[in-house]
Amino acid sequence: MNRVFNFGAGPAMLPTAVMEKAQQEFLNFNGMGASVIEISHRSKEFDAIINQADELLIELANIPKNYKILYVHGGAQMQFSAIPMNLMSRLPCRKAAYIESGNFAKLANKEASRYGIVDIVGTSEATNYDRIPAFDSSELADDYSYFHITSNNTI
Questions:
Q1: Domain boundaries along the sequence of the chain
Q2: Which residues, 6 or more positions from 147, have their beta carbon under 8 angstroms from its beta carbon?
Q3: pTM as predicted
């Protein structure tokens, strides 16, 4: 079979091995006799999926132990306001650290600034947002309510 390469924004081509594993587990996840999309989000099996995802992301992004990973739905632009409305007010300083990595990131920064102080702790603007800028999370101040990074600036 010839594979089509998709270089557009959004969904992208996955390796064949990943697709085959997803196909297999779609009908029988971990030998449970149910699909991965049929298990309860309150089950120990789902907890294991989330815990593994957390561990891998923590390792990949070198996330400090005092940070929490938040999985959200609703689309990126909805989260540009929902996140600061809910998290920026958690500390009296009403301050968040943002990485500016492209157009979506700039939109998120602008929206968050309506709710408090946004510190841009890294930017790749000088190189026309061709990469996520290098940053050292250990250098972030302790008084940030949260740290925001947009990894997929699709527009």
A1: 1-39, 40-69, 76-148
A2: 67, 96, 97, 98, 99, 121, 137, 140
A3: 0.58
